[in-house]
Amino acid sequence: DASDLLRSSLLHLSDSSLVRSTIEKAPVSRHVVQRYVPGTDVAHAVQAAAELRATNRQVTIDYLGEDTLDAGQAAHTVDTYVGLLRALKARDLTRFGAAEVSVKLSAVGQALPKDGEKIALDNARRICEIAHEADTTVTLDMEDHTTTDSTLSILAELRKDFPETGAVLQSYLHRTEADCKDLATAGSRVRLCKGAYKEPASVAYQDAEDVDLSYVRCLKILMAGEGYPMIASHDPRLIDIARALASRHGREPDSYEFQMLYGIRPEEQTRIADRGHQMRVYIPFGEEWYGYLMRRMAERPANLAFFLRSLASK
Ligand code: FDA
């Protein structure tokens, strides 16, 4: 239908460099970007983290960037995470993992044509070491389906030294129930989301309802298992189901957590935290906000109208 068409057009636009440069050059609607991305620098991210902590929310911080084909850029990303983790620790924000980081392996070298997987592993290991020194953790974001096997194998390597390293699984993929079974083990942190990339029918459910049903099946596996489920969704129905499953399995409030994105349903975030649940907010920061923002627009075309209006009014 029309909304599917719009969604898939927006996901295509997220790959369009012409549209990207046009929007970036426009005196863009800074406040629209800022609703989802608090700023470009480490200092902005740390400030946003401190503000969320003050309202009882935990955070995971992502330095924006993906699919780099430049080893120098990958090294810059690692340095930025190192600086970020040290700045968070200096502000006493990392204690008990209150502020952690999320890393896209394609930003630290996974897509490099030569030795990409090895470079990404080494770079991610360095970030895990610094996170460990700061008493906190790393979660590996999940990207498009062509990277899933590589990301899960890098995760397994990292977890030999840093068992607290988290994974992300996407319920839109057919394979994900099986991946949940593999990862529902003691000490394993798994963030379950619906999935945000444009994927073919050969590997992914295309219907929103099928994605939701798969989410529930995956959630049942994770909640019944021994691991630490992280329910990453703004969907009220899925959040209710997660709460019911947690209580059915007698889970204590510190044995799972809810997660939402910065700027999305902020009142609901504080409401869930105030009810005694753990709520962690994913904060993206950096210059490379374009692909991230387009995926958020694709999820909710109403935001697109808001975005275009603000472009026109500048
Ligand atoms: P859905 O999109 O169905 O939204 C449910 C409701 O939430 C909507 O009806 C609306 O009320 C509200 N809502 C949703 N999006 C909104 C928006 N943009 N603006 C305003 N309201 C909105 N994906 C991925 O592929 N790899 C990853 O590593 C991650 N990581 C990740 C971490 C965290 C903490 C979160 C919350 C999400 C991700 N995602 C992700 C993104 C995820 O896959 C998914 O695309 C989005 O979370 C949207 O799906 P929902 O489950 O929120 O449901």
From TrEMBL:
<dbReference type="InterPro" id="IPR029041">
    <property type="entry name" value="FAD-linked_oxidoreductase-like"/>
</dbReference>
<dbReference type="GO" id="GO:0010133">
    <property type="term" value="P:L-proline catabolic process to L-glutamate"/>
</dbReference>
<feature type="domain" description="Proline dehydrogenase">
    <location>
        <begin position="46"/>
        <end position="306"/>
    </location>
</feature>
<comment type="pathway">
    <text>Amino-acid degradation; L-proline degradation into L-glutamate; L-glutamate from L-proline: step 1/2.</text>
</comment>
<feature type="binding site">
    <location>
        <position position="296"/>
    </location>
    <ligand>
        <name>substrate</name>
    </ligand>
</feature>
<keyword id="KW-0560">Oxidoreductase</keyword>
<feature type="binding site">
    <location>
        <begin position="233"/>
        <end position="234"/>
    </location>
    <ligand>
        <name>FAD</name>
    </ligand>
</feature>
<feature type="binding site">
    <location>
        <position position="170"/>
    </location>
    <ligand>
        <name>FAD</name>
    </ligand>
</feature>
<dbReference type="InterPro" id="IPR008219">
    <property type="entry name" value="PRODH_bac_arc"/>
</dbReference>
<protein>
    <recommendedName>
        <fullName>proline dehydrogenase</fullName>
        <ecNumber>1.5.5.2</ecNumber>
    </recommendedName>
</protein>
<dbReference type="GO" id="GO:0000166">
    <property type="term" value="F:nucleotide binding"/>
</dbReference>
<dbReference type="InterPro" id="IPR002872">
    <property type="entry name" value="Proline_DH_dom"/>
</dbReference>
<feature type="binding site">
    <location>
        <begin position="194"/>
        <end position="196"/>
    </location>
    <ligand>
        <name>FAD</name>
    </ligand>
</feature>
<keyword id="KW-0547">Nucleotide-binding</keyword>
<keyword id="KW-0285">Flavoprotein</keyword>
<feature type="binding site">
    <location>
        <position position="104"/>
    </location>
    <ligand>
        <name>substrate</name>
    </ligand>
</feature>
<dbReference type="Pfam" id="PF01619">
    <property type="entry name" value="Pro_dh"/>
</dbReference>
<dbReference type="GO" id="GO:0004657">
    <property type="term" value="F:proline dehydrogenase activity"/>
</dbReference>
<dbReference type="InterPro" id="IPR015659">
    <property type="entry name" value="Proline_oxidase"/>
</dbReference>
<feature type="binding site">
    <location>
        <position position="295"/>
    </location>
    <ligand>
        <name>substrate</name>
    </ligand>
</feature>
<keyword id="KW-0274">FAD</keyword>
<feature type="binding site">
    <location>
        <position position="142"/>
    </location>
    <ligand>
        <name>FAD</name>
    </ligand>
</feature>
<keyword id="KW-0642">Proline metabolism</keyword>
